[in-house]
Amino acid sequence: MLGLDLDLDLYDIFGLELWFVPRVWAVIFLAASSKHTNKSPDYALLDDWLKTGLVISSGKKWKTRRRIITPSFHDTNLLANCMDTFNEQLDIGLKYFQKLADQSIETDLYPLISAWTLDVICETAMGKTVRAQTEESEYVKAVVRITEIIALRIRSPWLWPRPIFKLSALGREHDHVLNIIHKFTRQVIEDRIADFSSIHLQHRMAFLDTLIANMHDEQMSIDDIQEEVDTFMFEGHDTTATGLNFALFMIALHQDIQQRLFEEMQKIFENNNERLCTFDDVQQMDYLECVIKETLRLLPSVPIIGREIQETFQYNGKTFVKGTTAIIFIYEIHRDPQHFPEPDKFDPDRFLPELVQQRHPYAYIPFSTGSRNCIGMLRNSIHPMYINFILALKGQHFALLEEKMFLSTIIPRFHLTTSQSY
């Protein structure tokens, strides 16, 4: 009813026609459908930044671009390099976490986590070291600010019309920071193209290098490449940082779960907390994976997704008209007691394999599903991700891999507590 009330209020004021649908059937009919693949109109708020990159594009361009890019996400050498990047950036981040721990005062960890994810995504996506954890960077500040501005605009429907937004102070700031972002990524791409042969042969590969290879095959232009690089920077920073922040919060709240995680880490690392994490280690982190998934169930980084209904259909006596925006309320879908008894309880054991098999596959969709799911998903896997730079390694989801490596580094070294409540 809250969604319906909000729908009516928005319609009265702004003439919007919205349906809020917090049920699994909506996922089946909309997100998982091959018919309703266009994103909702509010994604147009990202047009200036991402142009027609993979997240925003639709129709033939989206299908063609996805077909070209998908093989890049299963390059074993590229993915193996990501593990090295995670460990290198974690080594830097640990020094700052230790400084905070030595002060013995409660503090917000999000800025540190955000800086770490920025360093990771810049190096894995562009092959560029920005030192977000250690230095002031105009580009890093611009990326952080642009996401804040977009969030403010989403919550301010009167700023949705482009002419009004461009005349506002927020719109002028938006254009200023966006110019910084576009100039930076363009320069990185041009430099990488110039050095492509030597980089390809001698240095660690980045996702950008796979796009440049497609340009050499005349499948993508430099503008196409910039769209996708900007898209992955947008996808791979904020949502991952938010997910990690939520995970640390839930671990700090539940001391029994923290102890169980500590014991799992001690067993895997054989009581050697200084050893670097390997992919084989990550494969053994079963309980940590359950904790991450339960965190994403209760506190999804992206609580709603939107689709534009492209073909009128009826369900349960209701007519969904072509052109209507459908908002799929993931936050509430994850709290359906039919699929998750005691839905507000934090219980990682819900994601033990035998319990997962008993649930509807679309009862848990932390970041969408269907044909517009994450590009890194393996064909036989149902492990979706939305607005996030994703890869897969032997079936391992990139973001899950990233979160496991981060948390498995923090948990054995620090004891987490919080005065906050949930």
Describe the structure.
The chain has 422 residues and is mainly α. It has a single domain, classed as Cytochrome P450 (Cytochrome p450). The chain contains 18 helices and seven strands. The protein has helices at 2-14, 24-31, 47-50, 59-69, 76-103, 110-126, 138-154, 162-167, 169-194, 196-202, 207-216, 222-253, 255-269, 279-283, 286-298, 330-333, 353-356, 398-410, and strands at residues 18-21, 304-308, 313-315, 318-320, 325-329, 392-393, 396-397. Strands 1-5-2 form a three-stranded mixed β-sheet. A two-stranded antiparallel sheet has the order 3-4. α5 packs antiparallel against α6 (110-126) and α12 crosses α18. The two termini are 23 Å apart. Mean pLDDT is 80; it is low at 1-8 and 371-396.
Features:
422 residues, mainly alpha, Cytochrome p450, three-stranded mixed β-sheet, two-stranded antiparallel ribbon, 18 helices, 7 strands, disordered N terminus
SSE arrangement:
Elements: H1 2-14, E1 18-21, H2 24-31, H3 47-50, H4 59-69, H5 76-103, H6 110-126, H7 138-154, H8 162-167, H9 169-194, H10 196-202, H11 207-216, H12 222-253, H13 255-269, H14 279-283, H15 286-298, E2 304-308, E3 313-315, E4 318-320, E5 325-329, H16 330-333, H17 353-356, E6 392-393, E7 396-397, H18 398-410
Parallel strand pairs: 1-5
Antiparallel strand pairs: 2-5, 3-4, 6-7
Helix pairs in contact: 5-6, 5-18, 6-12, 7-9, 9-12, 12-15, 12-18
